[in-house]
């Protein structure tokens, strides 16, 4: 391998060639000799965890990282904070984690570092997200000044310098923890009502002849500057592109989620794209069976090869509103594996396979392997995700 | 600390409360009293056994103590600076009996004291056996929590005086690895979780009609009835499970359910089926059936050291016995109807188990049908649904209890 990370992938493949012989009680490799050459189709193969809607203990995050390595996913997108809770310690602004659900549903700085190093050992990057200016209600628990007002608590107060001081503090603290080159700044679902309704913010807008839409753009770009100054490439959810794509910093990576057909528009404008089309790759959408996950194509609608290169890859998103420790792994697996193959395997390697025979058999085998490795991957053939098996049966057929 | 504050704290510490209030312990110990002081557990907490008759040769306590420390930290770095006072340096464990063999009705009682005075300050566990001490360590771990602000392991509401013993000696959980194969890691996870709630019998319903996953050296084709080549347990796997459980104070009760719920046996040995088209219960007329049962129990006796074995005996649908000619003939020759044959089967299986040193547990139908004929030491396992309200939909109460036969 060229790098140790290639070698790590090689070891994983090797481990999948090995089977336990129940008669001789030895571990064997069958159908030798093997010659395998491998490399990923996309460099960014992500899984997003949401630890704001539900706190996930460090042990659970570690287990998710382990399971990612089994299917060669390589970016853990850690959506740490959102409106419901702020679980991470921020030394520059120590009151922020008062927004955690409870005193014990928290991550220390050391926890975060530990997760990063645990992932790195498995060849997995950690991309942290600080979603601004929407999805940030929890910030105000520690610093109510961040809210437009006590009765109108989102988005973050665009008119206040303090808001950007806090963002700078958070990002500076995070720069010491998260070495990955990309940093996610969110920017989705920004409901600007409170900016218009709150007098001092309205005044600030009027003084600058800004609409709330202008202010949204102003906020996002200003946050991007802070990240760029810290030597990060900013990633933003697609609304930023849809609203003011031409103004985004040219380094921006646009994260598609709202639907299909977005990355083609993004790369046509020369920006890079990550695909997470919610119709197929949102894992909290339980009604997407594995076949639909598998056949989703990040390069759909992009024929120009130069533009194709701007699609960094994709990401399956495990939003946490309805998933917690008790069921997060069975919600993620085995469907994330379907996406993982889509992101890793060359089309030529899989094009001859038939979905309902050869691919299904291999996915069944992989699901049972996950189970054997202690990952609670759900039955493959249920229509709805994370449903229990409907009756007795072998792992390989359910 | 200001003198006035120190005095106030001392005053508060003296006043104990017996409490259902701040006691976040599960299950609730027999008696609990506590105070109001906060202590910390040292980063380098150690375990000692001063005064103990038991020497922990098998490292049962040493390993449990390490597991407990890991649990208390829950992956956080507990590296805050140790405070100068209110610091517990460790746990001293006094075990009065040298016995370290786990068995039914072993003494599981313990006393756990967490004082606020003492130099050096340490928690004290006293137990009759090492298994009581294991429970005490679990309880201690539940008193502790990781404190995010100080990065220390804190222990609130000291001093604690806890005296505990289980109400019942048999506190079981059944897992079914026939309807779905459960990997070893999963079974071990269940065992760990059992210790957190002080359950102490893992009832392993290994085999049933759908699959036969375990290796039986005496009859090696039996596990051809597994769902697939890899959904199997070797004998070393079973030994591993028993050992893993034993170290944690959990007994393993193996079940071999006969004569019903045994269709999977015939995949390896079709002669065990009444006929190819009528596959359960096991063929009562065939001596080979009982040879196989004997082989299974003989192999079990080398691995499953719990004093009981479960022989099932539930939900026996005998129609294949009357419909299969050679069995019908056997019944006639022996002047038996199917009820007699059901009873004959269960009792003969019981005798085989007893010959291998076991005492027997059977599901309640055996008692309901011929209770007075069961071996006198049989333990009857109740399971059947009871509808308490006539005409109400879905109002069931399930009583799972192990009651001794009269």
UniProtKB/TrEMBL annotation, chain A:
It is an enzyme of class 3 (hydrolase). Keywords: Glycoprotein, Glycosidase, Hydrolase, Signal. This is beta-N-acetylhexosaminidase. Its EC number is 3.2.1.52. Residues 42-346 form the Glycoside hydrolase family 20 catalytic domain. Belongs to the glycosyl hydrolase 20 family. GO terms for molecular function: beta-N-acetylhexosaminidase activity. Gene3D superfamilies: Chitobiase/beta-hexosaminidase domain 2-like, Glycosidases. One of its GO terms (cellular component) is membrane. The active site is at residue 189. One of its GO terms (biological process) is carbohydrate metabolic process. It catalyses: Hydrolysis of terminal non-reducing N-acetyl-D-hexosamine residues in N-acetyl-beta-D-hexosaminides. It comes from the Eukaryota.
Automatic annotation (TrEMBL), chain B:
It catalyses: Hydrolysis of terminal non-reducing N-acetyl-D-hexosamine residues in N-acetyl-beta-D-hexosaminides. Residues 168-387 form the Glycoside hydrolase family 20 catalytic domain. Its EC number is 3.2.1.52. Keywords: Glycoprotein, Glycosidase, Hydrolase, Signal. Residues 25-143 form the Beta-hexosaminidase eukaryotic type N-terminal domain. PROSITE patterns: PROKAR_LIPOPROTEIN (PS51257). GO terms for biological process: carbohydrate metabolic process; glycosaminoglycan metabolic process. The active site is at residue 315. Residues 1-19 form the signal peptide. It is an enzyme of class 3 (hydrolase). GO terms for molecular function: beta-N-acetylhexosaminidase activity. InterPro entries: Beta_hexosaminidase_sua/sub, GH, Glyco_hydro_20_cat, Hex-like_dom2, HEX_eukaryotic_N. GO terms for cellular component: membrane. Belongs to the glycosyl hydrolase 20 family. This is beta-N-acetylhexosaminidase.
